[in-house]
Specification:
The protein is an all-alpha fold. The protein has 5 helices and 2 strands, in the order αααααββ. It has one domain. Strands 1-2 form a two-stranded antiparallel ribbon. The relative contact order is 0.15. About 12% of the residues have low confidence. It binds zinc ion. The site of zinc ion (ZN) has 9 residues, from loops.
């Protein structure tokens, strides 16, 4: 009798946890196109990623040009250090913006699933919603 009720309990808890595990993101697996609000949020994620790339790629030439100009203007070699540190801070801010981006469909972090992070992900790491919905699925 006790064993039967335990089995019943286990079955019920497995069913309920299975229901809880069901992800709303199943819809993207079936190719439901994003609605306008989702498209706007995807555009925001793409803009954040673009900003991160711009800050990253402009670091060396930007620091050399701006820092070098300030160095010669002020007659000191310290301004280039300030410019470099400022650029690194901007990179951290831009990286944070990408890191906190949440998927408009499933609400999870777009670039992270568990301990796995991919800043270049072309799809949500959790529900596979493509970041560029117009492109055909790979
Ligand atoms: Zn998602």
């Amino acid at each position: 009798m006790k064993l039967a009720s335990l089995a019943f309990y286990l079955t019920r808890s497995q069913i309920s946890s299975g229901v809880r595990r069901h992800h709303p993101t199943m819809s993207s697996e079936f190719g439901v196109p994003p609605n306008p609000a989702e498209l706007a949020q995807l555009a925001t994620i793409r803009r954040r990623r673009r900003n991160l790339w711009i800050v990253f790629l402009s670091y060396l030439p930007g620091t050399a040009i701006v820092g070098g100009a300030l160095n010669s203007l002020l007659g000191s070699d310290k301004p280039v250090v300030v410019v470099a540190v400022s650029w690194m801070a901007a990179f951290m801010v831009a990286g944070y913006g990408v890191g906190i981006s949440r998927c408009p469909r499933c609400g999870d972090e777009f670039h992270r699933r568990g301990l796995w992070t991919n800043t270049f992900a072309q799809r949500c790491m959790n529900c596979e919603l493509p970041i560029r919905p117009s492109r055909p699925a790979a």
